[in-house]
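Hi R.,

As promised on Friday, here is the backbone we talked about, encoded as structure tokens. Could you run it through your design pipeline when you get a chance and send me back a sequence?
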């Protein structure tokens, strides 16, 4: 077995907590991952993990070795990247993540094209609407809609994205159309919220004549999948807060209609977020450049469709 491969598995076991998770990450079986850890322990003559039925936690020796192992792998990656940059033939795996909506519409469909252009680069894509911890999960690049909050990360802005409130005509026929943001609350409208552990969308931030205001809206159900919220809105189950490019086609079809256009939600920036050192890797630069251009082109195309007609007099 390659000693370096053993070290890579060891690092991911520490970070992910189980052999099965580390094995999936490194594309080996749990049995192979276990053998690599045992090989390391035999080589060093110490136990690296305390084992329970559910989780492996590093021993004191394991914690010390982890700190050094991370530095070793970073040095190897930087050296490989430097050589690849010189040869203009980048190789290896790049791990990227994105929310479900933009991931399905913009990122996933571009992965095969990226691989065709750079066949020696493997792309490992993870889609999730939860707030993925980039550092602990070993992510190279996260494509996100939002604000950079972690100072240990860097951000490259791709484009600003307008957001809208909308719902199905059938919902507004039954419940009436809110004329002001306050009526979202006073009339107890069903607002469809994106929620997951650590989620901050327990309110909507709207742009009003008095400035930006937060509204603590609510509804009978929520989800951690943004596309589920869109489908509920299409089914007439409530009002949703979405990036315009995600729902523009439904406006054109008339299956969703915008509301409160004079007081829209605060927009969001689509950006590539990555750890400080990762941008030195040519694979990371290439995939950010590729996906940034692709997102700008596809979103521009979506928004270039005929603009939806403004709503008629709200139903009361």
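Update: got your reply. Pasting your designed sequence below so it's all in one thread:
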């Amino acid at each position: 077995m390659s000693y370096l491969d053993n070290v890579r598995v060891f690092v991911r076991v520490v970070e992910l907590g189980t052999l099965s998770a580390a094995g999936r990450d490194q594309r080996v079986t749990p049995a192979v991952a276990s053998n690599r850890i045992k090989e390391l322990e035999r080589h060093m003559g110490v136990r690296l993990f305390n084992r329970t039925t559910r989780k492996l936690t590093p021993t004191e020796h394991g914690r010390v070795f982890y700190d050094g192992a991370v530095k070793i792998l970073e040095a190897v990656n930087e050296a490989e990247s430097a050589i690849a940059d010189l040869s203009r033939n980048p190789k290896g795996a790049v791990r990227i993540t994105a929310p479900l909506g933009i991931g399905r519409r913009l990122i996933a469909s571009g992965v095969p094209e990226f691989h065709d252009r750079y066949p020696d680069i493997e792309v490992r894509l993870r889609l999730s609407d939860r707030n993925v911890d980039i550092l602990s999960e070993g992510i190279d690049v996260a494509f996100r809609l939002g604000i950079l909050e972690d100072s240990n990360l860097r951000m490259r802005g791709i484009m600003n994205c307008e957001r809208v409130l909308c719902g199905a005509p059938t919902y507004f026929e039954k419940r009436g159309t809110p004329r002001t943001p306050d009526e979202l609350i006073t009339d107890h409208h069903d607002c469809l919220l994106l929620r997951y552990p650590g989620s901050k969308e327990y309110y909507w931030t709207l742009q009003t004549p008095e400035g930006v205001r937060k509204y603590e809206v609510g509804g009978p159900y929520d989800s951690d999948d943004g596309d589920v919220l869109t489908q509920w809105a299409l089914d007439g189950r409530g009002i949703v807060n979405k990036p315009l490019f995600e729902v523009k086609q439904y406006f054109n079809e008339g299956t969703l209609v915008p509301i409160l256009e004079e007081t829209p939600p605060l927009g969001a920036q689509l950006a590539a977020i990555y750890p400080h050192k990762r941008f030195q890797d040519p694979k990371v630069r290439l995939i950010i450049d590729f996906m940034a251009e692709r997102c700008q082109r596809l979103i521009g195309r979506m928004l270039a469709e005929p603009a939806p007609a403004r709503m008629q007099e709200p139903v009361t």
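One thing I noticed while checking it: The chain has eleven helices and 14 strands.

Thanks again,
M.
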